[in-house]
What we know:
By secondary structure, this protein is of the alpha+beta class. The chain folds into three domains: 2-67, no CATH class; 114-201, Pdz3 Domain; 205-403, Alpha-Beta Complex (2-enoyl-CoA Hydratase, Chain A, domain 1), CATH 3.90.226. It is 35% helix and 26% strand. It is built from eleven helices and 21 strands.
Amino acid sequence: MIKKRTAFIGAVVIIVITALLTAFVSNMVAVKLDNKVYISKNEYERLVGIKDKFSKALYLKNIIKENYYEPVEEEIFEDGVLKGLFEALEDPYSEYMTKSEFDSFMTHTKGSYGGIGVIVTPGADGYITVVSPIEDTPGEKAGIISGDKIIKVNDKEVTADELDEAVAIMKGKPGTRVDITILRPNRKEPLSITIQREEIRLNTVKSRVINDNIGYLRITMFDDKTAEDFKKHLKGLESKNIKGLIIDLRNNPGGSLKECVEIADELLGKQTIVYTKDRAGNKEYLDSDAKKIDYPFTILVNKGSASASEILTGAVKDTKSGVIVGTTTFGKGLVQTVRELTDGTGFKLTISQYYTPNGNYIHGKGIEPDITIELPDELKEKTEITDKEDIQLQKALEILKGKI
C-alpha cells in the first residue's frame, strides 16, 4: 500500500514538474534540468535569428582578431560595438562613453578640471566645432571664438569622429601647454594657437551694476549650481536698488534644463516656459508660477547661445516678457538624458524635442532676437571689449533706459 502511494505521489510530482516546465517554456523561460537547459521552440528560433543577424559582425570580429597586425583586446571590441549603436543614430548629441570619458563629461557639470575651457560639438561638416569658449578661461583669452573648427590638437589631425580623443588631449595638467589649429570662416589660412592649460573652475554666474541703476548678470553655462548662484546674485543686485536688468547669455552653450527652468521661474509670470515632445507625441509642460521680477529686463544672445540658453530666450521672446538683443542663436532643440551604468560607463541619448511656449521648434534654425545687432569682426576676435565698445550691451542699456 505504501509503495503504491509512493508511486502515485511520484507520478503526481512528475506531472506537476512537466506542467511547470511547459508553462515556463511557453513563456520563453529557460529551465535547467539534468545539466541541460530547455527552452521553447519560439525562443530557440529567436536565438537562431539573432545569430544569423549578427553572424557577419562575429565573422568580421574573428577576421580582425586573427589577422590584424597587432593584438586587439576584447574590451576594444566591446566599446566599439556599444559606441557603434549610438553612432548609427547619426545624432551628434547621443553617445556611449567609456568610464574615463563619462568621468570627464561629468566634470563639466559638477567639478573642475585641467584644460583650456572650450565647449565643442561634432559639426555636421565633419569638423570639431566650438560652441563657445567658457568665460575667463585660457581658450577665451587665447582668442578662440564660437564657430571655430578645430582641425589639429598638438601634432594630431582630428575630425568630428575623434571628438573624445581631441578633448582628452586638450585636457591636462594645469601649467602645461597644448597647440590648437583652427579654421575660421573669415580667414583663408588655418590659425595655430598655443594655449597654457589652467584649472577650469565652473563659476557660471557673475554680476555688477552699470550706470548706477542697471543690473548686469552674466551666465556662462547652466550647471548644477547655476540657479542657486543666479538667485544670490539677483538678490545682491536688487539690494542696490536696480531699476532694470541685463542678462547676458552670449556664448552660453547651455547645460541643465532643470537649472534653466528654475531661473526662468524667477523672471516670468504664470505661464509655460518650455514643453518637450517624445517619439510617441507625449508632451511634458514646464511652467512658472505667478511670482516674477517687477522691473524691465533684456537678454543678450549670439550664435554661441545654445540649448538651455535658447529655452530661456524662447520663453522670454514668445511671451514678450523682455527684449532679446544680439544675433541668431545656435539652434539646438533636442533634449538628452544622461545615465551612468553600473560599471562606471555611461551614455547620452536624445529622448525628445523641445518647443518654445508658442510651439516653435528651433533646432537647426536658432532664435532671432527682437533687435539684431552684429558686433564688428574686429571686436569678435578680441578677448576683452569695453562696455562702450560693446554695441549690443549699449543697445540693451538704451532699451532699459526707455522703459524705466
